[in-house]
Specification:
With about 150 residues, this protein is of the alpha+beta class. It has helices spanning about 15-35, 45-60, 65-70, 75-85, 145-150; strands at about 5-10, 10-15, 90-100, 105-110, 120-130, 135-140. It has a four-stranded antiparallel β-sheet. The chain is elongated, with a radius of gyration of 24 Å.
Amino acid sequence: MDGKKDLEIANFTLSGWKAVAVAVALAVLFVGFRVFWVRSPGPEAAQEAQRYLMLESARTHMPSPGDLENMAPDELERRARDLLAFSLVRVEDMKIRGSRKDAVARVKVSVDGRTPPDGREIRYLRMERLVVGGWRVKGDASSLSWHLKLW
């Protein structure tokens, strides 16, 4: 070698701009793989996401005890039907990006086979996988966090 830094792999030598081009190509390949690498988490993660979405929907639509006393019977009946509909939340499709400790899930949701009442068919959830207990939803996430989640 004549003083230049060379990359030698199995009697194949790269030097100068060729070595830089190969290094850049490998970096682009690695980052591209991580960006488009999405996995299906399995049924236990989908069940946890479904449970979280049902409870969140019921919580936001549940009237306070004071409001229940002042509601008309037809309004109570409508609220009861709405709450029953939230028990029909289904996870249609779910993909996860990230590590087991900090993952972001993209969840396609339906309520009784239709678009949810709030209109949000695609939800993003921050999740983690625990050794004991399996998957756990930490909370909501944004679509930006889904697209930027590489590791």
